[in-house]
Amino acid sequence: MLYVLAGTLEQGLLFALMVMGVYLTFRVLNYADLTVDGSFTMGGAIAASIIFAGGNPWLATLAAICGGLLAGTITGLLHTVFKITPLLSGILTMTGLYSVNLRILGRANVPLLRADTVITRFNSWLPPDSIYGATLLGLLIVVLAVIALYLFLKTEVGLALQATGDNEQMIRAQGVDTNHMKLLGLAISNGMVAFSGALVAQNQQFADAGMGIGMIVAGLASVIIGEAIFGKRTLLQHIIAVVCGSVVYRAVLALVLRLGLAPTDFKLLTALIVVVALASPQVKGWLGKGKNNRKGETLDA
């Protein structure tokens, strides 16, 4: 049981960077970015290909982050320069990245068994036979990422980025170039997503062209779960909440797997979680309206 809990925490932390990237676009920038499915795979593909070729795993992970930054920038340029809608610009980049990722991998998947990765290097600094290396590394990276994102969003540029998502016309009237803010937000978001993909690929010891399918829905589900359970009263609390949402989401998947649900049903379960979370305010509104109508009928009688 302890091993299952450790594995769930490990997965939640490694995917938390992806969730933070989704949070940055969907909640902060108010931009429906579907590049995530492609940039997550790109991060894993770049890191795995370099490591497989004998490259340094830390440099491979850095290269993966740069690939994600580039992917986000392309989506931003499609939207800001060519005036393509946010949804379609993300779809176009994601579609193009599928072929790009196959080119990077050179095959359907790249194995990393017995390869030197950031996980194995971090484990070498721990006591022998330690099974918590990936968990500790994920926790360290996530803590640093949370602090960095919070401090960034508190800067003048970060506040302008938030204002772009809150009221684009207002902040543009204040002299802020909202196109630059969107480019910056999309680049950072997909850089974090690719970072997560690189870590996940090294932890599971392989990368394949389909590893990013459904990541945007999983990220959105984690964000919504975190907000619903842990709240979002302050900026720091909001960021921590989405990280916790990532862990809770992975715990839910582990639980239903132990209850007998087939792994092939995970995507359907994720979609249902998102539907329930997004539909709940509307359902509450209907219930509240129904109660008010019944009260009005009672008073009239």
TrEMBL record:
Primary location: membrane
Keyword presence, Transport: no
GO CC annotation: plasma membrane
Membrane topology listed for this record: Multi-pass membrane protein
Sequence intervals crossing the membrane: 12-29, 58-78, 85-104, 131-153, 183-203, 209-230, 239-262, 268-287
Record GO terms (molecular function): transmembrane transporter activity
Places the protein is found: Cell membrane
InterPro entries: ABC_transp_permease
Key words, A-Z: Cell membrane, Membrane, Transmembrane, Transmembrane helix
Pfam families, sorted: BPD_transp_2 (PF02653)
PANTHER family xrefs: ABC TRANSPORTER PERMEASE PROTEIN YPHD-RELATED-RELATED, BRANCHED-CHAIN AMINO ACID TRANSPORT SYSTEM, PERMEASE PROTEIN
Name under which the protein is recorded: ABC-type transporter, integral membrane subunit
Organism the protein comes from: Syntrophaceticus schinkii
